[in-house]
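Hi R.,

As promised on Friday, here is the backbone we talked about, encoded as structure tokens. Could you run it through your design pipeline when you get a chance and send me back a sequence?
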């Protein structure tokens, strides 16, 4: 590990490469290979205009009619959440969306949520790193932890056309981080961009005021489009109580005896832009886009020490604050070679790290810790697609990702004097991580629509983990007019994050990295059957089996938690879902999933016997339901009532809590209930649409708790009540 110049590595990073979808998921006006050229607003259905995750995972990415493949035809277990559903249910972040998606469960530490998928969670500090989150096909991970930000700081939801979620490994399409699943956020098509579309809300979070704004605007022509978007939020969850189930919270001496959090103030912001130049006749395009995002969150339930907020014994301000930022700039180009061949090239620069407001208060109370960590790098790829006929296409991708990490370091600062003291700050070392990958994928309609086959392999050469081979294969069949069956296999590998490799403990009991970790590998087999007897009704059921080898996570070792490969985890999930929709007047859905999972805990002797092989943190079962109905009301004030509920089954406590408690224990079942009353399509200003909504979340005030990974448990997010106003010009 040495200091290196980023500029000297650009050639390495710009090695031609591609994860499928990075370039192809970008909006464009190009005509798909093998498809006739069109003009005007029809461009938005082109191979690269709306070629989103559904197409990338499907055999017919481009068809003669240039329409997206249906969910039934996509050879993957896919959920699609549209912009209309986001507005109907009142989702304010991608994390909220995932909370209501079958096969997902989020644990919220009130800083960054941790998404588990189909019985598998990432443990302490994973920050939803088991999934790959993308905006228009480009990764948005915070590279140091490989985590994903799922709150307002990720993207303004007003700029989102659709969110597409794939459960299961997808490394063969999206590279090393597409491990447990993929979330691809598709932004607005050019002719969907409004002049201005803004949403704001004011209300209460618990008993504290909260507010949020979210806006998008721009313009488009046949040859040019521009989109600017922004969002910001401010809320305060202070007042939540430390769950009584917590066996060993570390509370500073100055707050001894306190059980209520005073430091859960949260703020976040994101800015985004996109400029596109298009040749509608030849199908070429050039797109430049960029995002900057940051958040600042009180850490009364952070891993280092808990309930640190307020003032210390000397009357000085106290409280852990997590303050991070990241930004990305990308350039995409497409060259339509002829009717059969198209070439897409993309490059992205990314950077992120700690902001000056970040501080960690410790149990001792008379000093705090300033963290230092940052990263920067480049992701470059090129993709060639060949579509000789409607029934067959081939995809060749090459990708290179270069990541330079300034390894985590820290210094101790006296609260009274502001002077640093004790051990000198860790030498600022740097680590380079490079991954070069190649993909070959083919899709074939054998007996359309009776049988579709898809298959692909990806080879990666990682600078630390050398050669990795992953694949995906699937078959989709229409068994008559109303039944669709899928049989799928996928594998993925994931390199441990720099945090797992190089973390140093900030306080006693904190995490310790392990530079000798192996890469993780998962294999998943899915079988799903969908029945659609009518356009208004559908039902599906499916079974998934996953086996994860060399799972890497922090494991309790003495007073600290050390990164280790804990052998294997096996998970089987059965999930079923039904949905009824009768236009805008009435609709609803219900789902149920149950999971059985076993794993190697990484413990030995008595501790291994105590924690056992049972699944931790993920619920044994989850039931979800939602409904909306158009209420009788004056035509000028159309009203809609919508409601959603999640009944969450028992969750086994994490190993750290079990070891502190001296016995295994479960956390209780709870019900999470939301409701909205919405008046939409109001024409307060002639020609401009206005929507007013009254929304309530966690109406029953469910407190959980959810499993923590540092000897204490997390209370659920508190009740929220707010008024929302949306205006579209």
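Update: got your reply. Pasting your designed sequence below so it's all in one thread:
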């Amino acid at each position: 590990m040495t200091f290196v110049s980023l500029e000297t590595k650009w050639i390495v990073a710009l090695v031609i490469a591609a994860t499928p979808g990075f370039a192809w998921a970008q909006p464009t006006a190009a005509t798909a290979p093998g498809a006739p050229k069109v003009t005007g607003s029809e461009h938005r259905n082109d191979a690269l205009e709306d070629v989103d995750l559904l197409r990338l995972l499907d055999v017919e990415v481009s068809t003669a009619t240039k329409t997206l493949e249906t969910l039934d035809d996509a050879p993957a277990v896919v959920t699609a959440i549209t912009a209309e559903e986001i507005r109907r249910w009142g989702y304010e972040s991608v994390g909220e969306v995932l909370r209501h998606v079958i096969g997902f469960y989020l644990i919220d530490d009130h800083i960054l949520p941790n998404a588990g998928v189909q019985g598998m969670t990432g443990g302490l500090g994973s920050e939803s790193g088991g999934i790959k989150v993308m905006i228009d096909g480009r990764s948005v991970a915070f590279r140091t932890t490989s985590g994903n930000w799922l709150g307002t700081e990720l993207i303004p939801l007003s700029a989102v056309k659709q969110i597409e979620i794939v459960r299961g490994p997808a490394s063969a399409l999206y590279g090393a981080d597409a491990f447990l699943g993929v979330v691809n956020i598709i932004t607005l098509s050019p002719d969907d961009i409004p002049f201005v579309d803004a949403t704001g809300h004011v209300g209460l979070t618990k008993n504290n005021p909260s507010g949020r704004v979210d806006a998008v605007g721009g313009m488009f022509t046949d040859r040019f489009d521009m989109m600017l978007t922004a969002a910001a939020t401010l809320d305060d969850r202070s007042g939540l109580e430390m769950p009584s189930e917590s066996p060993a919270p570390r509370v500073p001496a100055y707050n001894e005896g306190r059980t209520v959090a005073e430091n859960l103030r949260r703020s976040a912001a994101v800015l985004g832009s996109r400029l596109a130049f298009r040749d509608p006749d030849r199908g070429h395009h050039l797109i430049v886009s960029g995002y900057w995002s940051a958040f600042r969150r009180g850490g009364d339930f952070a891993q280092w020490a808990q309930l640190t907020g307020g003032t210390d014994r000397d009357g000085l301000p106290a409280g852990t604050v997590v303050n991070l930022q990241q930004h990305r700039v990308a350039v995409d180009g497409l060259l339509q070679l002829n009717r059969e061949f198209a070439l897409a090239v993309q490059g992205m620069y990314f950077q992120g790290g700690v902001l000056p407001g970040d501080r960690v208060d410790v149990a001792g109370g008379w000093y705090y810790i300033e963290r230092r960590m940052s990263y920067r790098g480049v992701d470059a790829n090129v993709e060639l697609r060949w579509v000789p006929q409607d029934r067959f296409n081939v995809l060749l991708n090459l990708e290179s990702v270069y990541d330079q990490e300034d390894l985590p370091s820290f210094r101790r600062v006296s609260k009274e004097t502001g002077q640093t003291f004790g051990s000198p700050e860790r030498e600022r070392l740097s680590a380079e991580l490079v991954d070069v990958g190649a993909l070959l994928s083919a899709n074939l309609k054998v007996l359309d629509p009776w049988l579709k086959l898809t298959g692909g392999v990806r080879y990666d050469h990682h600078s630390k983990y050398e050669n990795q081979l992953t694949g995906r294969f699937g078959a989709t069949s229409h068994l008559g007019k109303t039944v669709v069956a899928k049989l799928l296999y996928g594998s993925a590998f994931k390199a441990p994050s720099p945090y797992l490799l190089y973390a140093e403990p900030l306080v006693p009991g904190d995490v310790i990295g392990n530079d000798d970790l192996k890469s993780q590998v998962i294999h998943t087999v899915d079988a799903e059957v969908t029945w659609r007897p009518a356009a208004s009704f559908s039902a599906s059921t499916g079974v998934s089996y996953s086996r994860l080898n060399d799972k890497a996570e922090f494991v309790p070792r003495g007073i600290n938690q050390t990164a280790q490969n804990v052998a294997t985890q096996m998970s089987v999930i059965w999930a079923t879902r039904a949905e009824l929709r009768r236009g805008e007047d009435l609709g609803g859905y219900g789902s149920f999933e149950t999971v059985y999972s076993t794993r190697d805990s990484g413990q030995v002797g008595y501790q291994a016997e105590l924690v056992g092989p049972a699944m931790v943190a993920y619920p044994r079962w989850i039931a979800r339901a939602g409904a909306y109905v158009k209420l009788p009301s004056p035509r000028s004030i159309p009203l809609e009532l919508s409601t959603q509920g999640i009944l969450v089954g028992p969750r086994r406590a994490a190993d750290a809590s079990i070891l502190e408690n001296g016995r295994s224990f479960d956390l209780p079942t709870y019900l999470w209930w939301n409701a909205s009353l919405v008046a939409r399509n109001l024409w307060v200003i002639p020609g401009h649409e206005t929507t007013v909504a009254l929304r309530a979340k966690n109406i029953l005030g469910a407190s959980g708790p959810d499993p923590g990974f540092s000897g204490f448990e997390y209370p659920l997010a508190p009740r929220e009540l707010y008024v929302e106003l949306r205006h579209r010009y």
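One thing I noticed while checking it: Confidence is low (pLDDT under 50) at residues 1-68.

Thanks again,
M.
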